[in-house]
């Protein structure tokens, strides 16, 4: 990529802008009947004038074939002229009838619509291989309507689209791109020429506002601040009094006169690759709740609901008693969990790894539709969330009000339990190496041993993981459960959990749980004194780890490098105090006080 140094010629105080600037303009030909020969001439004039400033500048025109030849005689003639000049432009498909894709729940209906538009393109010599499409009103692009993405790929082999909606409409400079289902979504900027037809004299606030925007105002800054700008406006803005021509030609002139930026244009596929070369950190999307933003709600399918999202998450870490907590939680009449995953059983494992890229429809499908949105509490337990780098940020974006529950036990016990778990699943490395070898392995140990060591110890770095969750969630939304207490006195823990969640009715766990001496753990009490306990894989029988064992001492030291001093001792209270999560308990107590007042 060539890099151009831009120095302001007249605005003193600007230093250098070390980026090249790519400019792509689209004009959306949404309804052929609105187009006339005069507009076509204006469009070609604009394109030629812009080419003097931007080599190969080419308008990218959208089409919805259903409107072809449905206008007056003059307009139908305009359609034919435009199609006679098909090679002068780039082209992208809208929907066949300009319908909003999120209104189609059925992917095959979307496919049918797109096939009609594609037939139209083929019949009229419109190129079908640009890889770019735009959805009317941003519908289906973000919030993602997965049916649109699938249909676009099937019919058009779409690789790129653009929207003003991610993460939400304003301000333009905060818009980002993302890649979903191999479709690159680029942020689209706003040029100030609105969807409805406007004339220079009728520009909102008066023509001077448009001139200001071009001459060092918002539009100028949009080009300056965004290395890649994509604008879209209606074709009618090139007809009428040629407002499109006026705006873009003056903008290009102003940029040329007052900066050293050199504007360039690129076809969509190259443009998208350039974009993600410049902004690689934007590739991964960050999903939000579609109902939290009015504009998003308006383009979110009525057949989908935002109620199928959890009100709280049990985040782990593994081997601390998360399954016991899960069992106890689902005994509560108002607490509902997700349906099981064929691969990961009761855990959905959405926020931590690649399932996240399946999108929120996939996630929500795991949850029931609550019968009472206020009193029902949906939740999800995935024990790997605790130590995941991504999970806190992703969870805070989608379910910012969710409460977070973690359970801590002595990290040495956790590591040992995890090691035994791996052995019982016949992990070759765990079978080959003793626990002592696993935790004492040095930098030159075999890679399989090092990998096992990492998986064994990293989740035990409690303080740093909790600190990361606290970056994204306030302490009052976090509850830390003492796993030892959960094991010995679950009813008291469950009372605390109920208060923390604010769930009702109050469920009496003292009556509902019983200690099963055969299992050696607390279990659900069923009718006729029967019990429902966790399976053999929870509460395993294995030789105890002697507390004087050298492994324990070593383990405490091995965790020192990354843990704060108090957290290394492994006691939940020390960690609470050290991480600030103690505030959670304090907040909880305050809540208790206020609710009892
Ligand atoms: N009521 C009850 N029943 C059975 N097991 C109980 C219970 N309460 C706590 N525990 C402890 O939970 C440990 C398993 O933790 P997890 O469920 O978090 O493990 S996992 O990460 O889901 O695999 C499990 O660890 P192991 O003893 O090593 O099997 C138990 O010690």
Automatic annotation (TrEMBL):
InterPro entries, sorted: Heparan_SO4_deacetylase_dom, NST/OST, P-loop_NTPase, Sulfotransferase_dom
Cystine connections = 523-533
Gene (name only): NDST3
Annotated EC: 2.8.2.-
Question: Gene3D superfamilies given for it?
Answer: P-loop containing nucleotide triphosphate hydrolases (3.40.50.300)
Question: Binding positions for 3'-phosphoadenylyl sulfate?
Answer: 417, 522, 538-542
Residues annotated as domain Sulfotransferase: 310-538
GO molecular function per UniProt: deacetylase activity; heparan sulfate N-sulfotransferase activity; hydrolase activity
Task: Give the protein's recorded name.
Answer: Sulfotransferase
The record's comment on protein family reads: Belongs to the sulfotransferase 1 family. NDST subfamily.
* UniProt enzyme class: transferase
């Amino acid at each position: 990529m060539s890099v151009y140094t831009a120095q302001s010629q007249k605005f003193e105080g600007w230093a250098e802008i070390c980026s090249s600037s790519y400019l792509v303009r689209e004009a959306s030909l949404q309804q052929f009947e609105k187009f006339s020969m005069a507009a076509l001439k204006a469009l070609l004039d604009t394109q030629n004038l812009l080419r003097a400033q931007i080599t190969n500048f080419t308008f990218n025109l959208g089409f919805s074939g259903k409107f072809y030849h449905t206008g007056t005689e003059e307009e139908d003639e305009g359609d034919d002229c435009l199609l006679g000049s098909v090679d002068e432009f780039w082209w992208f498909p809208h929907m066949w009838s300009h319908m909003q894709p999120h209104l189609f729940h059925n992917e095959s209906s979307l496919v049918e619509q797109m096939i009609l538009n594609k037939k139209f393109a083929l019949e009229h010599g419109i190129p079908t291989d640009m890889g770019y499409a735009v959805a009317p009103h941003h519908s289906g692009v973000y919030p993602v309507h997965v049916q649109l993405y699938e249909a676009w790929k099937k019919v058009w082999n779409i690789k790129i689209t653009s929207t003003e909606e991610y993460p939400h409409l304003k301000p333009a400079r905060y818009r980002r791109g993302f890649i979903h289902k191999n479709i690159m979504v680029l942020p689209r900027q706003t040029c100030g020429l609105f969807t409805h037809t406007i004339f220079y004299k009728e520009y909102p606030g008066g023509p001077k506002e448009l001139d200001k925007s071009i001459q060092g105002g918002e539009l100028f800054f949009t080009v300056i601040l965004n290395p890649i700008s994509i604008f879209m406006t209606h074709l009618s803005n090139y007809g009428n009094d040629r407002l499109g021509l006026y705006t873009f030609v003056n903008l290009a002139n102003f940029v040329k006169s007052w900066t050293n930026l050199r504007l360039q244009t690129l076809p969509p596929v190259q443009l998208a690759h350039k974009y993600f070369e410049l902004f690689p950190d934007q590739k991964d999307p960050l999903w939000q709740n579609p109902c939290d933003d009015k504009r998003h709600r308006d383009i979110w399918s009525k057949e989908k609901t935002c109620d199928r999202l959890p009100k709280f998450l049990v985040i782990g870490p593994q081997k601390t008693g998360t399954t016991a907590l899960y069992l106890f939680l689902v005994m509560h009449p108002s607490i509902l969990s997700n349906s099981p995953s064929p691969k990961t059983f009761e855990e959905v494992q959405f926020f931590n790894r690649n399932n996240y890229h399946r999108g929120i429809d996939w996630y929500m499908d795991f949850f029931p539709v609550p019968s009472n949105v206020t009193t029902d509490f949906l939740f999800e337990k995935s024990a790997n969330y605790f130590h995941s780098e991504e999970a806190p940020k992703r969870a805070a974006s989608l379910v910012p009000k969710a409460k977070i529950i973690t359970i801590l036990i002595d990290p040495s016990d956790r590591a040992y339990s995890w090691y035994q778990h791996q052995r019982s699943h016949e992990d070759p490395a765990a079978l080959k190496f003793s626990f002592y070898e696993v935790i004492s392995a040095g930098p030159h140990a075999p890679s399989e041993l090092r990998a096992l060591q990492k998986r064994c110890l990293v989740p035990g770095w409690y303080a740093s993981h909790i600190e990361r969750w606290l970056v994204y969630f306030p302490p009052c939304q976090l509850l830390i459960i003492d796993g030892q207490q959960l094991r010995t006195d679950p009813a008291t823990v469950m009372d605390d959990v109920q208060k923390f969640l604010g769930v009702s009715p109050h469920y009496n766990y003292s009556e509902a749980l019983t200690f099963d001496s055969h299992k050696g753990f607390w279990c659900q009490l069923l009718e006729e004194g029967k019990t429902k306990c966790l399976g053999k894989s929870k509460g395993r029988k294995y030789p105890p780890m002697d507390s004087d064992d050298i492994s324990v001492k070593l383990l405490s030291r091995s965790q020192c490098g990354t843990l704060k001093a108090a957290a290394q001792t492994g006691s939940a209270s020390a960690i609470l105090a050290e991480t600030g999560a103690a505030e959670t308990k304090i907040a909880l107590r305050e809540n208790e006080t206020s609710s009892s007042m």
